[in-house]
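Honest question from a wet-lab person: if I give you the sequences of every part of a complex, can you actually get the arrangement of the whole thing, not just the pieces? Trying it with mine:
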Amino acid sequence: MSEAMKVPTMAEMNAKGETPEVLFWVGCAGSFDDRAKKITKAIVKILNKAGVKFAVLGTEESCTGDPAKRAGNEFIFQMQAMANIQVLNGYEVKKIVTGCPHCFNTMKNEYPDLGGSYDVVHHTQFINSLIKDGRLQLEGGGTFKGKRITFHDPCYLGRANGVFEAPRGLIEKLDVELSEMKRCKERGMCCGAGGAQMFKEAEKGNKEVNIERTEQALETEPDVIATGCPFCNTMMTDGVKNKEREDNVQVYDVAELIATAEDL
Amino acid sequence: MGISNIIFAVIFIAAVVFFAKNVGKIRRNILLGRDEDRSDNPGERWKTMARVALGQSKMTVRPIAGIMHIFVYVGFVIINIEVLEIIIDGIFGTHRIFSSALGDFYYFLINFFEILALLVVLGVVVFLLRRLVMRIQRFYKPEMKGWPTTDALNILWIELVLMAAFLTMNAADSVLLQASADQLASLGLEKYTSDLQGGFVASQFLTGMLPQDLTTLAAIERTAWWLHIVGILAFLNYLPYSKHFHIILAFPNTYYSDLEEQGKFTNDDKVKKEVELMMDPNADPFAAPAPEEGAEEPGTFGAKDVQDLTWKNLMDAYSCTECGRCTSECPANQTGKLLSPRKIMMDTRDRLVEVGKGIDKNGKDHKDGKALLNDYITPEELWACTTCNACVEACPVNINPLSIIMEMRRYLIMEESAAPSELAGMFTNVENNGAPWQFAQADRLKWAEETD
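Yes, you can. This is the full assembly:
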């Protein structure tokens, strides 16, 4: 394993009597989905580059229960949540960073009532704080310099938790042209994956939600559609393919933009 | 006091009593909902109400409708100060009782009201154009067919008539008071002698259309006066039957807003108790449940009918004025799915009104065999929701349609096990292998070993 891809687990650290400054919660998509795994690796590279002492739960991590909860299965949600909380509290976790806005939202907002209170941040917020503390320097946009980038707000990051500026702040550091869609920030439109839609066929309609949203993104004539959620990433990537624009429009997570620009 | 004063007093008292009775019914209906504590943080609540209801902060997200709405809202609230004068005049047979006390300031006030009245007319005309000429799409969604559209147009026409009556009354009055006191006295119209000078800023343009005969003018003034005040009292009593009730409930409804992050959904306490018991290694699974004192029957999980929702959900339903901003922002609705958050609110209110009528007729425990689920809202609508909160964000009075959708999903899953099959598969995966897909938990760190 290269230094850049060093991924210690909580169990290993604990055995050595060490405590990480932050737990990196990978999430199911980040662990298993081929596209999302690239985002996970980008986040790891950034954390290592900044010298962050982090750890993952690895095989001790389990679904936060979010998709079950949004689908109405409160039992499975709470069982997952309480089991996760036992693990997290067992390791005395204080701070969590995650690349998934759904994990982020549910751990930040819904775990405290069930006995799990942590300082939960999205990776774009965490990377911003690394820059602010001088632990990470961005050298400019690299391959993205001068490109046109539009940012698709993940619902559970943006509207649901008011995090609009963290991802935008990072994109702007890449010397790119950030062009907003008509529907952005508070009025951003869902990619179509939320509320457990990711795991089922859509109801009958006249269009798929991700196609509508991709069309809105393409209206800004972007070179890159950036987002901050593995599910949004899937939906927008599929949308771009459906519109046969994959040759000149890329879909990247903000973490990937930074890792690529920094040649990590 | 003449006969007309007695008639006025009777109409006025009847209107107030009838309105109070209907408000009482709505309050009772709202309180049919489950309990939920929204009494915390009063400071933040007052601020939210001041900003969102009083300050109309969310209306102006869409500037044209927002500004026109502010005209109509401010106009109606302020012009209604004059209703106080009309009521006193009506009961005691005086005429413009405040004019002598306030002098020049009264003249200023009436002019100010007239400008507001013009702005109200402008707003209402723009609203009518948007509905009838521009035919804005969200006013023509399926749930708007029939009564909802009639209701909306009724409100706009009534508002036009009220403003027309107000201006006509002032116009006739301003001609009358230019006549000499002797002339008026000879016709028995002494009460029109007042300190007002000349015409008013807006209604002066109507005076040319009025006859010059003083007796006819006085009759027109009286007719407009009665039309204005009886119109307002009738309108007041129309509110409880109409979406227009939002002008009242917007205030408490924003006060009792959800102050948490939109992404925070409630954790069901009933479920929490069960899960805690399940996870407690000391719990004896075969023990008979401890007889708790005053133990209540465990309620249903989620919501099948309006009584299973919280009182705030039900207040939301009565606060909805069917503007459709929620539906126009809804990704499911925009892509042709059956779901419309506005319809969720309208259905909830319609069902609640139906339940209320059942109670009036047949007593408190009456069951009519119907429910909000299936008889009003179908599972297809509920499953189309992406829980994206766009509807919640869009609502100018902080209504939360998503909360109702979630409660009904919970009922479908936890009481009826009626999950779409793919979701049932997802649940199994989460339960068995800790991920929504069929991947082994033991493989969770494999990504770290892979090189691309």
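Two things worth pointing out. Chain B has 21 helices and no strands. The mean pLDDT of chain B is 92.
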